[in-house]
Each structure stands twice: as structure tokens, then as C-alpha cells.
Amino acid sequence: MSVGDYIxxxxxxKSIFRHPAPVxxxxxxxxxxxxxxxxxxxxxxxxxxxxxxxxxxxxxxTFFLFLVETITxxxxxxxxxxxxxxxFNDILALRDVTTLGIMREIHRWSxxxxxxxxxxxxxxxxxxxxxxxxxxxxxxxxxLLLVLTLLLSFTGYxxxxxxxxxxxxxxxxxxxxxxxxxxxxxxGAQLLNIGGFDLITNGSDAxxxxxxxxxxxxxxxxxxxILHCVAIPLVVSxxxxxxxxxxxxxxxxSQPL
Amino acid sequence: MAAIRAKxxxxxxxxxxxxxxxAPVATVKPVAAAxxxxxxxQDMLKAVREGKAGAMAAAPAxxxxxxxxxxxxxxxxxxxxxxxRKVEQPRRGFLMAAIVVACAPFSSAFNLAWTSxxxxxxxxxxxxxxxxxxxxxxxxxxxxxxxxxxxxxxxSVSNKWKxxxxxxxxxxxxxxxxxxxVALASVCTHLGCTPSWLDGEQKFKCPCHGSGFYMxxxxxxxxxxxxxxxxxxxxxEGMLEVDKSVKFQEEMGQxxxxxxxxxxx
Lengths: 257, 265
Hints:
The structure holds two protein chains of two kinds. Chain A is mostly helical. Chain A has helices spanning 3-9, 11-16, 25-34, 52-55, 58-77, 87-96, 103-127, 136-158, 163-174, 206-211, 218-249; strands spanning 193-194, 197-198. Chain A folds into two domains: 1-44, no CATH class; 57-249, Cytochrome Bc1 Complex, Chain C (Up-down Bundle). Chain A is built from eleven helices and two strands, in the order αααααααααββαα. The mean pLDDT of chain A is 91. In chain B, helix 1 crosses helix 2 (15-21). By secondary structure, chain B is an alpha+beta fold. In chain B, the strands form two sheets. In chain B, strands 1, 2, 3, 4, 9, 10 and 11 form a seven-stranded antiparallel sheet that branches. Chain B has a domain at 143-263: 3-layer Sandwich (Rieske Iron-sulfur Protein). Chains A and B meet through loops of A and helix 8 of B.
């Protein structure tokens, strides 16, 4: 008996893989159905449905970049402290003294690339008409993922805590002042008042909620750090799982139904 | 028998000496030797093995007679030439095996793909492991100056450096009656808490489990099994200099080390 047979015959192996090698059609289907990661994918697809000229592999590349962002991001968290005292210096230290501090450049460039591939993925889906029923729900999930990708970029932009970061977030968050009704400079803000007392002020509007203060401050840095590293990635992970699962349930990646 | 063989061998190795001893004979022999056929290499080898120097003497003799420097004919190597081929074979086999292993990843796209994935994963894992070892440490230096010895009066414990560096500077004559300044690490030898110096009771008291130590650092109550540890102390440029990278344990007899105290007159 070979070592390979011994390993495949052991209870450890059998407890993980409850089927023989996927060498025939039946076992290939069983493999897809019993593996947690693979079961999110279609059991079978038409060859034309995954033709590169048709899909551009943009969704796959976007997911790959999301994995890159997750791994490099977790590693960067070991060397970054989101406080006024340390944030900028920790970024400089990543560049100057940390071995493989290039991890941050990989994180940054992958983020740029991910925004591009998300747009191209959306463009491809539009061109191939893959947003039409029964895939319209997955299109909505995709739009949410697009918005969350942009929010990840926006929140990550503040973390280096240099002049570019602070003023970019200042300018970007100023738009929230003009939110209808909920922004204190937006139309209809005066409608929310009780007995002449304004409920929407610069200390209680949408922008204040986003920044955690009236201007970009340490509270903002902490708030954006948690949004960037924990809150948004959690939501994105959940939506990605649903997105993949719906691809399978709605008739495969892209071929006509 | 052994002596004879040795003599024969020496004669074969240094024919010039042999020729000098038997000069009269040599003048006669060359004629016959020159006339007869030159003995083959095999014959010479056989002669050497049997201990017969006479057969050998025939060959070098002409050179002696003609007055030229004798050419020493070394005996044939006893190891057959064929043997060297046997030695090379496993090396060549190893080389071939190495080439096969090196080329295996390129034998098919499948093998190349998995070899590449394995290699990249391996490198990434090693890189990640290296990434987790920082190059800059935010820690107090292990060597630092604590002022002149005159700052520390006799039988006193200084808390001045405890918060920053974790050491007490103690000047006491209670240990073996010697007038010493020592640096004690402020780490309890029970489970590593930080004891406090109680001036009124003249003892170090650990708040965690109640271990007590005399001013000298020697334990006398509670669960601590051994005295507090000393760290390195020396005088540099008139100042006391603590070196926390070395430690001295009393129960191991290390407190006699001169690097663990400053003795005052």
C-alpha cells in the first residue's frame, strides 16, 4: 500500500473529503456539493459560459484582489496604530524600517486595481445583459458591493494621516453637509425642528455621524479604521458569499438561459 | 623475510644507491641488459612483488652507465585503473537524478502550475513569517546610567529607576557585612509580579502572593523560592551603569561575581 493510499484511507482524510477522487461525472458533482467553498459555485456550467472573451474574468480578478487586500490588510494591522501619535509615523516606519513594508504598497495598488475591476465587471455584466431576470437580484447585490468597495477605498484613504488624507476626507465628507433633510446645510434640514429648536445642526447631522466630530479628528481616524478593517469587510464578505451563491442559483455565470 | 623484501624494495626505489654499492658489477651487466629485450611492465611488477631486485636492476642500469641522472621508474600502481570507473558511476547517477528532478516541473503544464503555486505559497509564507519580526523595538535600553554612587546613601533603597527600567538601586552593608551597591530587578521570583519597597518595614513586599525580601534581596517570607535577581552594575566615567542584559542569581552562587555589585570602602 502506497503512502497516498494510506493517507486517503485514514479517518482524518475521510472525515474531510467524504467522496472518492473527482475522476468521473458523479464524483465531480459530489465534490462540488460537499465542499463548503465549492458549493457556492455552480455544479456544472457550459463551456461557452466561462469563455474569457465573454466574462473577462473580471469578477474573479476582483475577488482575488479582495483576498489580497484581506491578507495584506491583516498583516499591516500588526504595524499600524490608528492614533494621532503613531498613525503617520507607523506608515513611515513601514516604508523605512519594516522588512517587507512593501506590503502597504501592494495593499494600496491592489485597492486601486480593485475599483477598476469592479467597474469593468459591472460594464461586462451590462454588455452581456446578465442583469436581466432572473439575475436582477444579483445585480442589486453587485451594486451594493460596488458602493462598499468605494467606501473601503474612502475609509482606507484617511489612515496614513498625512495632509493628503486629512484634506481629502475633509473635502469628501463635506458633501454629507448637503444631504437632504439629514445634512445641516442640505435642503429640508429646517423641517426637522421641534418648537423652533433645530434637530439637525453641525453637531448632529449625517456628516457628524460619519466623522464622529465636527471636523476630521482622532475620533474620525478611529472611526474610519474600524469601518475599514472590521465593519465593511464583514458586510462585503457576507454579500460576496450571497453573490456567488446567487450566480449558481440563477443559472450560471453568463450564458443565455 | 620481511627485511629482505624491504631491502629489495629500497633498491628498486633508489637505484642510484644500489648502483653505487655494486659499481663493478654494473659495468658488466649493461651489455647483457642492452642486448636482451627490455622487461615488460608486468614482469617488473612481478619482480617487485617477489622481492627480486636483480631483475629490476637491469632496467635502470643503462642510465647509470651512460652517466645521466637516473630516472626513477615508479612501481606500477597496485590499484587497477578499472576501479575508478566504479567510483564515478554513482556520481553520474546522482547528477542524472538531479537533472530529472529539476526538469520535472517543466514536464507538463499541470506540473509547472502546481510547482509554481507551491513555490509562491512557500515564499509568501516565509516572507509573512519574516514580516512578523519587527526591526525596531520600542523598549528602554538595557544599559543606562543612574548617577554617581554618592546619590545612594548607606542602607537605602532607591525607587527612582523602578518605573522606567524595573530596577532598584540598593546600598546596604547587610549582605555578608560588605559595603555594597547593587541593582536588583523589580521582578518577584515567585510568579513575576512587581514587589514594593516598604520603607517602614524595611522589606520588599509582593502584593500578589505576599512574598517578602530583605533589603539585600534575600527572601524570607511567602512563596518566593529564591532571592531577587541582581543585574549588572559597574562604574563608567564616574557614574553607575546598570546592564539589564545580564542577571545574577544568589542561589546559583553568582552574587560573588564582581560584575554584580560595586564595593565601597
